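Technical appendix A lists one of the benchmark inputs used to test multi-chain prediction within the project. The record comprises four sequence entries:
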Amino acid sequence: MKDFVPVLKRAKLFAGVGDEDITSMLSCLGAKLRTYEKGEYVLREGERLSDILVLAEGSLHIQRDDYWGNRSILGRIEVGEIFGEAYVAPESGMLLNDVIAVEDSSIFFFDVKRVITTCSSACRFHTMVVQNLFFAISEKNRSLVQKLGHISKRTTREKLISYLSEEAKKQNSSYITIPFNRQQLADYLSVDRSAMSNELCKMRNEGLLEFEKNRFKLR
Amino acid sequence: MKDFVPVLKRAKLFAGVGDEDITSMLSCLGAKLRTYEKGEYVLREGERLSDILVLAEGSLHIQRDDYWGNRSILGRIEVGEIFGEAYVAPESGMLLNDVIAVEDSSIFFFDVKRVITTCSSACRFHTMVVQNLFFAISEKNRSLVQKLGHISKRTTREKLISYLSEEAKKQNSSYITIPFNRQQLADYLSVDRSAMSNELCKMRNEGLLEFEKNRFKLR
DNA sequence: ACGGTTCGGTTGTATTTACAACAGATTGGT
DNA sequence: ACCAATCTGTTGTAAATACAACCGAACCGT
């Protein structure tokens, strides 16, 4: 089995936990590793979840297809990120989204009971892990709010400006690379791809921005 | 000072904490109570926050006005609910929304450091409070995702159906009362009020639903 | 009873969008 | 090098939306 300790060391769930402790925590927390191929479903809407997941390798999309087949991408998960944590609370119902691997991926599963319940053994880090969990979900919360900020704009152009200018702020540059292709960006912003493509070109003609593939330059 | 212990007893933050312990925790956690008049701002976009807030009385709106003055309502806070918890993480930046009192309201402030840091004294409940905090933010997370589900629908009608049918599911009835007036509902769904009003009447004419003020009946 | 304010509904118009269909470019596999 | 699949841009049309303006009803305090 591939050694993912260096990855977990940098994962938010284990922030503040020493290298040597991670290995012991893996068994203490009952960690399981699973691998997925590109395009494979990791979680499906309607399932129930009792594990907190940490992406060790690859990347994932959180998405949802509605009754009419419109797909909306709610977010993207990169290596080291936690997910599923919003659905392990006792009263939480079923999953509201699919999670799908956009590349070949490896994922750690941690049983939430063992994460949250402080054990009497050597693991001195449960409190810290629960705090990390809280901070991680806080961050996800904020990014959901930001996404809501983009989507609640009225026109496609405003949505694009809102999204791109925030990316520029995040990446601290007017040259930005986005993690989506056109269809995915359209799904993320909940607009029609061709209409969005059209709007992007109009904005380019007006000199608002330049782009090539998924790299953009704002003015 | 009004006795809010019965309210706090039912608040999610203190679930599982005995009545008599709440009083002692209030001082241990350094709780402060503030009152706000209807229409007054509780928090403003751009501020930094180091307290977790619990609404003891009244009701609040989380909202945001964009550059062009379009208001979007991100959610509503009722008595006993926690808020602000997503912005107290160490790396979290400034608030992304305003919080405004829609009625005269009373709010408890808890310094996050004292909530999260386990103290050595009599408070045996810090662990439980941190867990409650985690479950509360999980729930908020899920409701954000649900709202995203509504807003990411393409047409006003689909947004309305998505929102109303979910309310019906929540309230477990086809007769539902919504906590918004027309303008607020339009802000919540990020659509134009008059267009939405128009669409609602069309749907009524088509026999999809009936309504009077903020009470709806679905078919 | 009065005037002011808020709220919900209606209408018309200009703008914006979704949708479908297609074409060229790029990518990936064999 | 080739074919197939995917990605991106383009166009036209029908549908949906925002916006502004207005009206009547309900509600408020004085």
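The interface with chain B takes residues 64, 66, 70, 72, 74, 85-92, 96-97, 116, 118, 127, 130-131, 133-135, 137-142, 144-149, 151-154, 190 of chain A (CB under 8 Å). Chain A has seven helices and eleven strands. Comparable benchmark entries are summarised in Table A2.
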